[in-house]
Each structure stands twice: as C-alpha cells, then as structure tokens.
Give the backbone structure.
Amino acid sequence: MEDFVFQNTAKIIFGKETEKKAGSEIKKFGGKKVLLHYGGGSIKKTGLYDRVISSLRENGLDFIELGGVLPNPFVSLVRKGIRLCKENKVDFILAVGGGSVIDSAKAISIGCNYEGDVWDFFEGKAEPEAAVPIGVVLTIPAAGSESSVVTVITNEDLLIKRGYHSDALLPKFAILNPELTMTLPLFQIACGASDIIAHTLERYFTPTKNRDLTDRLCEGLMMSVIKNAEFVLSKGKPDYDSMAELMWASTIAHNGILGTGRKEDWATHKFGHELSALFGITHGASLSIMFPAWMKYVYMKNLDLFVQFAERVFSVNPEGLKKEKIALKGIECLEKFYIKVGLPTRLSETEVDLSKIDEMAEKIVSRGPVGNLVKIEKADAIKIYRLAI
Amino acid sequence: MEDFVFQNTAKIIFGKETEKKAGSEIKKFGGKKVLLHYGGGSIKKTGLYDRVISSLRENGLDFIELGGVLPNPFVSLVRKGIRLCKENKVDFILAVGGGSVIDSAKAISIGCNYEGDVWDFFEGKAEPEAAVPIGVVLTIPAAGSESSVVTVITNEDLLIKRGYHSDALLPKFAILNPELTMTLPLFQIACGASDIIAHTLERYFTPTKNRDLTDRLCEGLMMSVIKNAEFVLSKGKPDYDSMAELMWASTIAHNGILGTGRKEDWATHKFGHELSALFGITHGASLSIMFPAWMKYVYMKNLDLFVQFAERVFSVNPEGLKKEKIALKGIECLEKFYIKVGLPTRLSETEVDLSKIDEMAEKIVSRGPVGNLVKIEKADAIKIYRLAI
C-alpha cells in the first residue's frame, strides 16, 4: 500500500423525504443567502423544486436562483453564476440535480472569491483561496460529485471538457433520497451505472503493487452496481431498493476511499471527455464505449490484474483457460453488461465523426501523457480510439 | 436500505514515518497544551515515544503525560487523566497506542468539561456538552477506535465493561504507520484481526432486508483480513504490506461506513465484554470464542444470510448441500480461521469460571434484551455461553 492522507467531511443524509432537510442543513452550516442552482425543468415537474423552496423558506433563508445547467455544464453559465453570487452576496450554494449541476455549483463556489476568470483554475493558473460552501440535493446516482473534490466543466468556446481537483470543492452536505430517482429515464440510469463503474475502474486498474483490501472493496461495489442496474433495466422501471443501492454506490465510488493507498489511472475518462466535448455524447455512454477499448489495449501488460477482475467481478471460471483468455472474458462480460443495460460499446453506434480521432488524441495528451497503469501517448490514444470503432 | 446519516470527519494520515507529523497536526487543529496518553512501556522501548516527543517539541507544543493504560482500560485512570487535564488546562489529547489507550483518551476528553463523575456517561445519566479534541498515533490494527465515535471502559469497582457512543468522541486525526506494528506479538495481531472481523460481523448479521452493497463491502473486508492475518501468522512475523492492509481494515471496519442503511447487532460484543471484565480475557480472544457460539444459536432463524456468508466469504461450495449444512460450514470455516491464527474458540481453553455464566448472562441483559438479528434474553444468553464451553 502506498502512503496516503484520507479525509472526507461531507455529511450524507440518506433516505425518504430527506430533501425537506435542505433548509435546516444550510442553516447548520451557517448559510443565510442561498443560490439555488439546477438544470432543466424536471425538478419543477416533479415537485422537488417546490419542496426545496418550502424548506428554505421554513428556515428563514433568503435565496436567488439560477437554472439551466446542461449536461457537460458550460463555463459560460458558471461565469453567470459567479456574477450573480457576487452581486447578491450569496453565502451558500444549493445544487439540486445530478453531477452536471453539482459540478457547475462547485465551479461557481471557487469563482466567487477570485478576481480573475474561473477558467484559470482549469488551466492550472490559479488555486482557490476560499470557496462559498455548497450543499447538494442529488437526483441521479452517477457522478459521485456529491462528496468528491472534483468538478468537470466544458469550455464551449475552446471545445474543451476539463476536470479540476481541490479540497475546497467538497460539499458540506449531500441529501440522497432514492425516491427522487423514480422518474429517471432508463438510459440515464444506465449511464449513471456506467459512470459509477468507471470511477471504480479508474481506481482499480492501477500499477500499485501490494494491494488487497481496496481491490476487494472495488470489486464488491462493482458487483452490486451491475446487479442492481441489470435488475432495474430488466424490470423496465426504477424501484426504491435498487436505486438506493446505486445511489449509495455512486457516492462511495467517488468519495476517495476506493483510491486510498494507490495511484489512480483516469486515462479513460479523458477519452470520454473528448467525445462529450466535441459530440455531446452522454458521459456514461462515452465511458461504456471507451473502457472496453482501453482495457483491450492495456490488458496484456497487466494480465494478473485483469484475470483477477474477470474471476472476482464476473465469476469467470478459469479452469482450462490461459490467463489471456480469462482476462479477455472479463472484458467481454463488462461489454455484455453495458449492452444489457442499453449502452453503446462502439463509436460506430454514435454520431461521432471518426475523422476527428487525431484531433481528440492530440487534445488528450496536450499536457503530457495520461494514465498510470500504462502511460498513454498520442499514438496510443489513436490506437485506443480505433479499437473503439 | 434503511435511512441513515453518515459523516466521519477524522483525518487519516497513513504511511511510513507519519508519527513525525503528530505535532504539526495537533497545531493545525488548534492544540497548544497536550496530554500525551499511552499504555505500558512498549512505546519507550521502540523509540516511538522519543519520536512523538520530538515532533511535539519541534512544533512548540507544551505537554504533560499520563502512561499506564491497561488493556480493558480502567475508569480510575480516566478519572486521574481528567484531573490532570483540568489542573493543567490541557486543550488537546494525543493517544499513542491501541484501542485501550484511545478509549481511555476519549473518556478523559468528555470528562474534562463535565462537573460530575465520568462514569455518569456510561450509565446514561449525562451527555457531553463539549470534549477536548483528540489525536491518535495508532500502534495496533484492531479496535478501530481511531475513527469511531465509541469508547469502551471498565469500571473495576463494579466489574462492568461498558461502551459509550457520542459524536463528541470522534478523533480529529489518526496517524497510521504500519511500521509501528512490526514488533507486535503474533497473539496480539491475531486478536486484532478477530476484533476487526467482529466489528464487521456485528454490522453484517442484522435483520435489515433490502441490502446489497454494504454486504459486499463487509465480505470484501473480511476476506482481506482473513488472508492477511493468516499470511502473517503462517510467516511467523509481521510484514509491512500485510500489516498495512490490516491497519486500514481496522479503521474502515469501524468508521461507520459498513453500518450504513442497516440496523447493527452488537450482542456478541456484550458477551465478550463480560469475559474481559470478570476474567481479563483479551478482547479479540473473547470474540473468537463468542462469535461461533452466537452464530450457532441464531443461524437457523436467518439461514439465507448465513448461507451467503459461507459462500461469499469462505467460498463454501453449495453443490448438493442443504442450506443448513452450507451455513454450518461457514461457521466452521470461521472457527478454523481463528484456530489457524492461534486464537481460542472455546471457554474451556481459558481460565473462565463456568459457574459465573448465570451472573454474566444477568449482567448482559441488565438494561433489557440485546442484539437485533435475534433479541437475546437472559435464557438465550445462558444457552449461548454454554454453546461456547
């Protein structure tokens, strides 16, 4: 195990009707003037907007609001949020939505105490000195942003989707009510499951030797996500118990605990980000396409780890099989899972313009090789995209 | 999954030579006048005491000290610590040791701001209003007290060992350096592994229906502990990598995450506490005796869960076997593990006076039935102790 520091102070409030606690939690964390940040109209249709507003009012909280966050959230809206917060002296941001809304809120939170442009953080030109505290009411199990120190924002002028890490980005609290997921389209649930698994795989396929416990926890989490996602998709509609498992898994997969004591990889996310930035591919779908391709490119150099994955996560029977064959069966099982829940596994299933592969590969390595299990250079990136065709 | 709130703010600093950070961490958390609390002389023999003292001095921290904590720590020493802290206006307690030292430090920390006797908390007569902050340098992977909200103290006048829960008891930071475990006797390592597994079993064998992810995490953790404990014991001495896995497992097993969304049980710990209070049985050994007995008493009423335990944790092959037989094989495997690492599994291997069974059973239920999977009354408690003979 490698040395590490782990701390995650986010308070998780999990269960039925917990969105009613949003106001009292904000008060506990010292908020008085709130920015309510959300996406499209879905929270108004479902009544969630009204319940949250009531909770804020009951607790005597003043608020302004900014809706309209899109998937792969834009830096332009972040900039608008920062202006709003500065003008209105906002001291707490409540994100009501999924990963995109939370990530947008996080970017706003570090921009409020910074004089320059918020994209500076994503360019590595600035570090936040302070952030407006954030709370979350989560509506989709996926990104894990509710208790992570990461935000991923798209600069629509530069056509770049990029992540930024800082302890300042950790939400103070996250409200997780699986009831809020009952109206989600099945494709979104599948994309969420893919995102959760991807967060785990980025921490699982790493070069760190001397590892045991964290592998076991990663494997257990992936088995649970696969089981519950398959159940929901086969049933054709979300049920509370399965969505509860997926929701808690989304948080644990990304709260840092599964990455303790090891290097993480994160190459595959970068492949996915390019597909989202250029062609608007949903994040989870970009990962169900790119993970099998990346795995096929790297497995031969890390055979034992891929054999372990196959045997433990998918119960591949190793009897009479060579290691290479076992490893390939594991990758095949993962692809079959994606297909079963309705996700694409090839670029040819999407509208992606294949002539852009060179451009995407160039962008991926624009700040040097990516990944840790295998260092991915531009030539590797091109081959991996081609494996995904 | 049941509704829950989860938050664990403890900062974990894991790795080689991390004890040197004790002073700077205390400073970060605002400490100026420190009580250094420890057990017997082992930390002086190994040089740990000197390294910690140096770290305090380098950071300009004033300190007093109180050693002498025994296993199953006594309330008398806690009272002495409270007097010392009050007289010297201590504002931070550093526990250097294992679960007993940490638990003693925790009890001191809540006693410092309380006018009455500290045992009041354990009798349910008082709630702490404030606590002196605590930091930990951990020397043995076992109790998980380094990031738990529990303390277990023995009242040597009343011959009662009792736990107390409060969020005020959570340490601010815990330093985990596996190098510090290299001089531990093998029996202590085995007892530690037993304690970690017991903390997990108390959260695993519960009546909560609709469960999946947390079961998987519990199972993965137990498999890792069993593997690494067996490896150390078979090798005859601790090695860094295995001890690192055990150390991180001890923390995760008891930081609350494995109990999310479910009722916990905790009957078996009470059986063990009586053996420790009356006969000084080491905590981990009391649990390797009492868990198999408790399991044999309750498994028939919860067959599916015990079958799952057998198949997943010990890979019991269910083919051609009835559920009852599979469940029993799982219990047998657990007993074999305990025996393999040198732990007792029967009261008859110890100096326990069997004529005291009635008295112990009486004490266990003195505040009502215990446990959640099965409610244990006095008559059940007697039968469980007899199964352990």
User: Anything to note?
Assistant: The mean pLDDT of chain B is 97. The first strand of chain B starts at residue 4 and ends at 14. Strands of chain B lie at 4-14, 33-38, 62-66, 92-97, 134-138, 150-155, 160-165, 173-176.
